[in-house]
């Protein structure tokens, strides 16, 4: 099938909208017509580290659309279903069997290898291989080949443009709060980085009626929005973040979340905790960070990572969509819509901080 896709030809080049060919679906696969795809930092991080010498690639992993075709072995999905696409997992390894699919032992092969598990490609350009199957979808394209494990059927009343980022960014932030940190109503939570993931975390904490919420971000517009959502905001460029957090929380936060991936910020997220507090990191960034181990030990603090919100997608994404429909998770306020032809403008606007969550629409 011929279709349009936003190709990356290397870190130094912008995305280019080109005509490519999608492979036929196999018996265990489905074809989805993409309505919208969220633009995520992970897409841009992957683009920045994939050398041009490896050839063109199609990213995109927050797709939402309508099922066009279903393979003979697929039993839980039907043509015409409205779906949100998310990460792949094998379903058979120790982590998947233990209800921890985000930590699937085959995660890299299934989500980041650039091909199907057998090495075949789902996308070609003039007969040549294109790196695809990103998170089992590569949804910066008009159509995708996906599989049952990364396809979540949603009610047809759900707005697919709003739903697209639930496949990664929104579930990452909300899941870090609801599935990992699990704050009580009398807790205090500080989010470092008020982007789409950070705001999803704040809104999830607000839905749990967490008493004290705080957002740390250098951008005035994002601090203002955080305050509209009930959080106290801190400007790290002009304020003593640690002192402000101690004053706000009576000595230290019970929970902190870093979305930035910046080592110094992660260190601050740990140091800002009170005794037996927990810090969670979800941002892609530098691979090494310095942490005061004596502080961690003496005060019984916890520092842990979190991928995809520790979520089991078939239940968690519908849970979040239900919260949204009840008005308790208003992430639609974070979204700015762009046509796919404007993908590079969306990238630039996200980088400048002028928008929180770009969503690309065909």
From TrEMBL:
Domain Alcohol dehydrogenase-like N-terminal: 27-154
Listed InterPro entries: ADH-like_C, ADH-like_N, ADH_Zn_CS, GroES-like_sf, NAD(P)-bd_dom_sf
One Pfam family from the record: ADH_N
Required cofactor(s): Zn(2+)
Residue intervals of the Alcohol dehydrogenase-like C-terminal domain: 197-318
Record key words, sorted: Metal-binding, Oxidoreductase, Zinc
Homology family: Belongs to the zinc-containing alcohol dehydrogenase family.
PANTHER family documented for this protein: NAD-DEPENDENT ALCOHOL DEHYDROGENASE, S-NITROSOMYCOTHIOL REDUCTASE MSCR
UniProt name for this protein: NAD(P)-dependent alcohol dehydrogenase
